[in-house]
Amino acid sequence: MKHAPTSTRRRFLQQSAATLFSAPFVTTGLRAASPNGKLRHAAFGASGQSWADIESLSRHPMWELVAVCDVDQSFFPKVKERFPAVKFYTDWRELLEKESGNIDSVNVSVPDHMHGSIGMASIAKGLHVYGQKPLAQNLAECRAMTERARAKGVMTQMGIQVSSDFTERFTVEMIHAGVIGKVKEVHSFSNKKWGDMEPTPQKTDPVPAGFDWDKWLGVASERPFIGG
Fold it and tell me: H or E element: which one contains 5?
């Protein structure tokens, strides 16, 4: 996978879009170029990280949001207020089936367990993919996505944020250059606590109106809905 040449995710998104606009193909050979010359984009996710990605991309004048998919329809009004012409879907498979001929790129910024499935399917349609971390659930899925992207000739990028900063990239360059010799052992740590570490509560909450819990589960094991 290619890595961001700049220090922030926002700058990468802007410059990545600019690269696509200047490329001679934009269509990857599978569809006609946009009549207005803009990069036509679809977002998987309508809030949270995906909304942040949408806002970053929208700063480029040659970017156009065509469609958005989310299993929670309560997020749609906010998106529609900002992008009145956008089409909405609650099933990512339906979006790809109906819109793949009308779009050039996507961002996959939904819960982690669906990154690989949506990313692979998007690449198979010949679409450029910006996938939030983790790129997929395991190394096998990541390698499969890499191979498929190469075969389809599309651009891909993973949202690695801090890992795109100068300090991290400079350290990698020093290691590759052999400055500290051969690396035989690596120790890493994290000072962050993600999510709730307590046992899963043995209860079931009502599924909110407009929220498709079955589609949210996707490829994950079936389990009852528990509200936040």
Answer: none
